[in-house]
Design brief:
It is a single chain. The chain is an alpha+beta fold. Among the domains are: 6-185, Orthogonal Bundle (Hypothetical protein af1432), CATH 1.10.3210; 253-318, no CATH class. The chain contains 22 helices and nine strands. The longest helix has 22 residues, at 61-82.
Length: 422
């Protein structure tokens, strides 16, 4: 019986993602997808704890990684038709796109904040040291691993190769904006994707540029990015869920250090981090399921604070977020001090049960060259051409006071009194 010629993944955004087994690069992609390290991404949610805010946000890093690979393949293959000299880099750019998030830990970016890890560091460790992945890359081309790393470090000699994967207009951002919009139910992410991809080109130095006809679609993309950060990624409930997780695991570490916490080998290794070296095996053994299992167990822990924090996360009894962005810094500090005193009266630890968190939204920065529009043979930054983009370069910051729900009436009264005094 002959194996099927292709492997197809049915994606809610991109439709059928078909990989041809007769194409050596695409056969490599299929084998990389089948490695345990990549399959683990099925068990890591794309948006961390955001499903507690947006109930449809259940998609995984696995689906996102496939989407980034598919967008990169479309964009690169179109560019290679126009510029055949770049075709030799196809394996590098497609593998880099597929594997770019393989190093994400449990709850995606949330674990990085809690445990001070870095998914880009672990991505490079996995492609170098995880035997199933490394063997496939080395057997295909002994130089492929180094070439992929040069994409992640932005050192690849052909800039377009890393710019398709990591830049202000890359396939990673295009996919996650559309995917996160789709799964959260937000209506912002309907990008003119075909127009953007077909407007991409290469300048004489090998940099990615956008033709003038694609400018409007890119402007729309930058507006979408701004709205997604302002309304989805920095939603106060997301901030509250992250805060609860941080406090729960910090409390768990304190109990663990005192010898009063049960955990399996994987969780033990993470609780030791960064005091002990976290091995690649222990890193890859962790996912959302493992971490959530421990939070479930710790709901009945003898430490009242740890048990309560875990119950709050599991049962979605999150803290409330009061927007105090308009208050001067001194007034915020005064309000926080009063709130902590009130929280202490309720029997809670004020350092754990209330605090100020900040969120920032900005639609466009000049990070890694910015976005260049090709105008009469010259690359011009879109910021200089578009009246829409310039305002997006300014940072929009909001500050939230997180607190238990039972504090809401008291806080409303405090803020009302402050408004009357003003």
């Amino acid at each position: 019986m002959h194996p099927k010629r292709s492997r197809t993944y049915h994606d809610p955004l991109h439709g059928a993602i078909a990989l041809d087994r007769q194409d050596p690069v695409e056969q490599l992609l299929i084998r990389l997808i089948d490695t345990p390290a990549f399959q683990r991404l099925r068990r890591v949610r794309q948006l961390g704890a955001a499903s507690l805010t947006f109930h449809g946000a259940e998609s995984s890093r696995f689906t996102h990684a496939l989407g980034v690979m598919e967008l990169t393949r479309k964009a690169f293959d179109l560019l290679a038709k126009r510029h055949p000299s770049v075709a030799s880099h196809r394996a590098t750019v497609l593998c880099a796109a597929l594997l770019h998030d393989i190093g994400h830990g449990p709850y995606s970016h949330t674990a990085e904040e809690i445990f001070k890890t870095n998914h880009e560091y672990w991505t490079r460790c996995i492609i170098r040291d995880s035997a199933p992945v490394q063997t496939l890359l080395a057997d295909f081309d002994p130089a492929l691993t180094a070439a992929i790393e040069s994409v992640y470090t932005h050192q690849h000699p052909l800039p377009l190769v890393w710019q398709l994967v990591s830049s202000q207009l890359d396939c990673d951002r295009l996919d996650y904006l559309m995917r996160d919009s789709y799964f959260t139910g937000a209506s912002y992410g309907h990008l003119d994707l075909d127009r953007i991809v077909r407007s991409l080109d290469i300048d004489p130095e090998g940099n990615l540029v956008v033709s003038r006809k694609g400018q409007t679609a890119v402007e729309h993309y930058l507006l979408v990015r701004y709205f997604m950060y302002a309304q989805v990624y920095n939603h106060p409930k997301n901030l509250a869920a992250t805060w609860i997780l941080q406090q729960a695991f910090q409390r768990a570490q304190a109990c663990f250090d005192q010898g009063h916490l049960a955990a399996d080998d994987t969780m033990t290794a993470w609780l030791h981090h960064p005091h002990a070296e976290l091995t690649l095996d222990h890193y890859l053994a962790a996912d959302d399921i493992v971490f959530t299992y421990h939070l479930q167990r710790w709901q009945s822990h003898e430490d009242r604070c740890l048990a309560d924090l875990c119950q709050r996360f599991i049962d979605r009894n999150l803290f409330k977020g009061q927007d105090v962005s308009d208050l001067p810094a001194d007034d915020r500090a005064e309000l926080l001090a009063k709130t902590r005193a009130k929280v202490r009266e309720l029997g809670y630890d004020p350092a754990i049960y209330c605090g100020l968190v900040h969120s920032q939204s900005r639609g466009y920065t000049l990070y890694q060259r910015g976005i260049k529009i090709w105008v009469e043979g010259q690359p011009i930054d879109i910021n200089r051409l578009s009246p829409i983009v310039e305002p997006l370069t300014h940072t929009y910051q909001r500050t939230w006071l997180l607190h238990p729900a039972e504090m809401t009436p008291w806080l409303d009264e405090q803020l009302t009194q402050r408004t009357v005094m003003l």
